[in-house]
Amino acid sequence: MSSSPAADPISALREGDAGQADAALEILSRVFGYDAFRGDQATIIEHVAGGGDAVVLMPTGGGKSLCYQIPALLREGTGVVISPLIALMADQVSALEAVGIRAAYLNSTLDLHEAQAVEQQLLAGELDLLYMAPERLVLPRTQDLLHRARIALFAIDEAHCVSQWGHDFRPDYMGLSVLADAFPQVPRIALTATATETTHRELTERLRMQEAEHFVSSFDRPNIQYRIEPKASPREQLLRLITTEHEGESGIVYCLSRKSVEQTAEALVARGIPALPYHAGLDAAVRQDHQERFLRADGLIIVATIAFGMGIDKPDVRFVAHLDLPKSIEGYYQETGRAGRDGQPSTAWMAYGLGDVVNQRRFIDSGEGDAQFKRNARSHLDAMLALCETVTCRRVQLLRYFGQEMDAEACGNCDTCLSPPKTWDATVAAQKLLSALIRLDRERGQKFGSGQVIEVLRGRENPRSAQSRHEELSVWGIGTELSEKEWRTAIRQLLARGIIEAEGEYGVLVPGPQAGPVLRSETTLELAVDRTPAKQPRSRSGRGVGGASRAAEGLEVAERERFETLRQWRTSVAKEKQIPPYMVFSDATLVAIVQARPATIGQLGGISGVGAKKLAEYGEAVLTAVQESFSGRDQTSSRSR
Ligand code: ADP
Ligand code: ZN
Fold first, then answer.
1. Nearest Cα to 303, choosing from 269, 346, 345?
2. Ligand 2 mean position, distance from CA 417 (Å)
3. 195: helix, coil or strand?
4. Which SS3 state, helix, strand or coil, does residue 30 take?
5. Residue ranges of the chain with pLDDT lower than 50?
6. Which of 152, 334, 489, 564 is the residue whose CA sits 20 to 30 A from 467?
């Protein structure tokens, strides 16, 4: 590889006589700085570059962008990318410009002159990629413009937005079906990270992609460590996660309510951890500002409701934390999937408790929607609870939910794999609890939430039990062998298994559909002993040594210091250029540089993530920073000798 980029390497490649596959690989290496395609990328690129339509289901971080970017570069004309995320288009375009691709966007943030300039560029064939929102694309004026231009392909990003049953439905996506007739000769590629079969079927029909080739990848995200722990004092638990594992790193914290978003962000800031709130109640300008700061800063935490995140392609989000139980596995997997897009070790962590289960049930029961809607919501929640309470590998269960089987029985990188929960025979305890519910109802006509039921089981006097003479019931005090906390743990798990249910406005406990076999002693019931948060598994490579950050986890202690030096260099360059640090180089690339210790431009150019443009732009500066990081280190060690 030559050390200085050609004037226009891309068109040179397109015009070259190498085969298409070779040309694709050449672009991958020259422009993006990567040496091999991942998964289905090569096949998809070849298919689309050859003029075929494609539907691509690939997890977040799987590398969907290259699947349309490279074909757009290989084909004559401009690739038109349709995305619902106007707020992110400017960043997407900057990221492409940073590697030397001619990109632009057309949306409502441009004034008339700016928009006209972009249109001129398009018509003059000066754009490789053009981003726009669906509502703009379907305007007659835009259709006319596109007919006058040379279009290489249409890429429909976030294609699940056309599905009405998914959580991101955008009516404007429905209009995209016109592309099939309006541009029959232009290949279309629809991409999404939403994996369920219903969504896949719907988007295929609605975008009229029946004739397309379908590429469904594995949805596993092996670099994300999945962990779910019982909720004790959630903010303290979150703080421990951040300070022991993710010091100075970027993360997203999801909360259910706007109020808890505000409070959690304040609590983090009060402890000296930079954090910003994001929820639909904030002013649009404030939201936009917080989102931009999150994308640009290194090591900022955003505390948000689920309103935040779609299309955020910040690759170095090192953790996603949930302080409340998500409503469905689909939502949970999308949210956690925002961690570690760069493939580096990352954490998906959740704290959940009995209160979450009761609250979510209550929201559903007392919320709007018809009976069918509520049934669906309940089954979504049940699947989520089953994931929380599983005593086997979380990843196996997650993938199975999406209809995919793992090769191995256990992943080795989730909490249940890293420290398998202890179980106990809870058959008798469950029978005692069910009897208490039945007696209270039959003999007193009463139903209670978990607190009072536990008091009865443990035979603890209180005004309410005195008034109702609970001590005269045969179930009074039959459960003293468990502490209050142990009962709450058991109740949470029994709820998740449908052995009991929480009912109505107050979440009172009643026997559930699965109670029969337990009462009749037809099954034995194994429940997990709660892990105490303090005993959470540490990472495989012994975190905490030489800085508690995940990004540098695979590095030796001395290397971690060099990584920090390079990170600081990156921050200063990003500030100066006013771009997010990851657009300078990703964490993964910095780690590779530390490990390779390049001394020449040629060596640096061979590192994954260093393409021709970045090599020309930053090469010398990186080599200097690398040298400094080493000489600084040698001086310290020679002084200490
Ligand atoms: P998605 O859109 O599927 O979530 P992206 O296209 O944003 O994923 O890719 C995720 C990250 O992986 C990006 O940082 C991208 O540059 C990187 N990446 C994609 N393909 C490759 C590859 N073949 N080799 C190395 N890195 C890649
Ligand atoms: Zn596992």
1. 269
2. 4
3. coil
4. helix
5. 1-7, 15, 17, 534-546, 633-641
6. 489
**Any residues with Cβ below 6 Å from ligand 1, and which?**
34, 37-38, 41, 58, 60-66, 313, 315, 341-342, 586, 608
Q: How far apart are the first and last CA of the chain?
A: 42
Could you give the CA distance from residue 550 to residue 318 in angstroms, rounded to a whole number?
A: 7
Q: What is the pLDDT of residues 355-388, one digit of tens each?
A: 888 888 888 888 888 888 888 888 889 889 999 9
List 356's β-bridge partners, or say none.
none
Atom number, ligand 1, closest to the C-alpha of residue 32: 16
DSSP 422: P
Mutation test residue for ligand 1: of 313, 335, 583, the one with most atoms within 8 Å of CB? 313
Reported as type and span, the H/E element at residue 153 is: strand 151-156
Local structure of 539: helix, strand or coil = coil
Q: What whole-number distance in Å separates Cα of residue 383 and Cα of residue 197?
A: 16
CATH code of domain 554-638: 1.10.150.80
Residue 82 pairs with which residues in a beta bridge?
132, 156
Closest CA to 124 of 104, 149, 151, 142: 149
Could you tell me the two tokens for 488?
A: 């709450």
- Fold that domain 224-352+390-418 belongs to in CATH: Rossmann fold (3.40.50)
Nearest-CA residue for atom 19 of ligand 1: 63
Name the CATH architecture for the domain at 423-528: Orthogonal Bundle (1.10)
Place of tokens 């070259």: 16
Could you tell me the two tokens for 244? 């022991």
d(CA 347, ligand 2 centre) in Å: 13
Specify the CATH architecture of the domain 9-216.
3-Layer(aba) Sandwich (3.40)
Integer Cα distance of 20 and 70 in angstroms: 11
**Ligand 1: distance of its center to the CA of 111 in Å?**
32
Cα separation values, 569 from 81, 321, 599, 621, 629, Å = 33, 28, 17, 9, 10
**Torsion 475-480-485-491 (CA) sign:** negative
- Return the best residue to mutate from 28, 34, 189 for the ligand 1 pocket (most ligand atoms within 8 A of CB): 34
Domain boundaries defined on the chain: 9-216, 224-352+390-418, 423-528, 554-638
CA distance 394 to 383: 12
| Nearest Cα to Cα of residue 159 among 208, 184, 196, 194 | 194
Quick: pLDDT tens for 600-613.
999 999 999 999 99
For 535, list phi and psi in degrees, rounded to 5. Answer: -95, 20
Ligand 1 pocket, mutate which of 91, 129, 341 (most atoms under 8 A from CB): 341
Q: What does the DSSP assignment read for 342-380?
A: TSS-EEEEEEE-HHHHHHHHHHHHHSSS-HHHHHHHHHH
Tell me the backbone φ, ψ of residue 320, rounded to 5 degrees: -125, 125
Cα–Cα distance for residue pair 248/560, rounded to 1 Å? 13
What's the angle, vertex CA 101, arms to CA 95 and CA 137, rounded to 5?
80
Amino acid at the residue 460? R
Q: Cα separation of 129 and 81, whole Å?
A: 7
Buried b (16+ CB within 10 A) or exposed e, 417-438: bbeeeeeeebbebbbbbbbbbe
Q: How far, in Å, CA of 477 to CA of 369, rounded? A: 41
Note whether 9-216 and 224-352+390-418 share their fold.
yes
Q: What pLDDT, in 10s, does the model give residues 137-192?
A: 999 999 999 999 999 999 999 999 998 766 678 889 999 999 999 999 999 999 99
Closest CA to 310 of 285, 291, 290, 283: 291
